[in-house]
Design brief:
Layout lengths: L4 H9 L7 H16 L3 H17 L5 H8 L2
């Protein structure tokens, strides 16, 4: 499960509901960071952290990954 920078940016700018609380909290934190700094390095850092999270919790993240993969 790997998302692209474009998908991460859509997650940061969109209003999506995710099933996993930990993932929702991660996205909320990054949305707050992205609001203050919309640079490419911020999006890249977010993408890296999301990909790390998805890889670590791959078994329980399939539903949320399906939402992101449609972006």
């Amino acid at each position: 499960m790997v998302i692209t920078i474009a998908q991460a940016q859509k997650v940061l700018t969109g209003n999506y509901t995710f099933n996993q609380l930990g993932f929702s909290l991660l996205i909320t934190r990054w949305k707050r960071i992205y609001t203050n700094d919309t640079s490419q390095s911020t999006v890249q850092s977010c993408t890296n952290e999301i990909n790390t999270f998805l890889a670590k919790y791959e078994i329980i993240m399939s539903d949320d990954y399906a939402i992101i993969s449609k972006l």
